[in-house]
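tool_log.txt
---
The assistant was asked to compare two proteins side by side. It first ran the structure predictor on the initial sequence, then on the second. Raw inputs and outputs are pasted verbatim so the downstream comparison step can read them without reformatting.
(1)
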Amino acid sequence: MVTDIFILGLLTARPLSGYDIQQYLELSAAEHWADVLPGSIYYALNKLERHGFVVVDTIERTGRRERSTFRLTPAGHAELRGLLRKALSTPVRVMPSLLYTALTFVHELEAPEVLKAFEAEIARLEHEIAFTRQGEEVKVNAPGTPPFMAAIFANSRAHLEADLALLRHLRATFPTEPQTPPELPSRAELRQQARPGRPRPSAAKESPE
């Protein structure tokens, strides 16, 4: 959805080619803060064209090469508005759930391997925070930048810094001795602790204790 919003949104300004859109995404470093990869643009453009949201406006020929410029259709405008409404009403989840899940079962890995992974992620986050600060200095002070852009950068940086603080804490406190698997309650205990109203498997599908 994010890639579609980017393409359709940029096309509200003027017709653009896939190359133009890639250049803008690279200039704005969208793959860092919006998870949009420049390499995904041509696939997304083809999909949007099949759905009638964009159409070819002009075709430029340079030698044997052709470059199509796309423009937004009325259906594309409607699609963009729908995607924006959906994006604005989607709950924001910023918890690093994959990290939380991995830590739950980290007993399967040796401590040096885990610590090495922490170090690599810490280095990546430090680089991303520095990159974000550089982009913030350029964009926030650029002419015509919306006033809320500073808040967007501050929010992004706060999330990165919170993740960095967590990983630094994990690196400092992670035990070096072997870990044991988590203790699971018995099936009977699970039944007793089940939340009221939560559906349970039918008796026919349950195996004996």
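(2)
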Amino acid sequence: MCNLQSANFLIKAPHETDGFAQNLGHPLRLGTGGPARHGPRNALLPFFLGVQGAAEPVKRGEITFSPYTHHWSQSPEHKPVVLLALDEQLPGNRFCGVSFFSNSFGQPSVYLYAGQQFNGLLGSPKLFVKVTAGILYGYVAPYEDKVPLNFHGFSPAIIPSLGYKISPQDSLQMKLLGNAGLMFSWGRLF
């Protein structure tokens, strides 16, 4: 998911290397600060995304679907917002991912991000908070002014969300979209 192999952002494990990783001295496994381990979960990521010494996540990823977004103010220009996201779970309750969605104006959009999940909110094991930060693309003319710091359709974004685990794999989440609205979604760990 986050290893973006097609964009050559992936540093491969020693048994998969094409020489690129060997030029770095030794490849780093996410969050370990040391040499990569062998196995199916050995996509190498930038070391700063994981928590050093943290246990591997129990589940590999999460898929999220949002069929509805509530806008704080209504506009005849608003279109239904539908989102599909895929996250890779990382050590230390961190994750990275990509979401594809139609924005409030019907434009196809994408959000690439990294985030942190904080479990046990208010002492409840089912409540959690997530915060993501990344790059958003898709708000282009004539709606480029609808998100801050937009440059040719690209803009930074920080999205906090509140979630409730309805089962060990499933959760309901509400994402705060700044002064635009509130997105409701369902997530499933796999």
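---
observation on (2): The chain has two domains: 1-49, 61-189. Confidence is low (pLDDT under 50) at residues 3-42.
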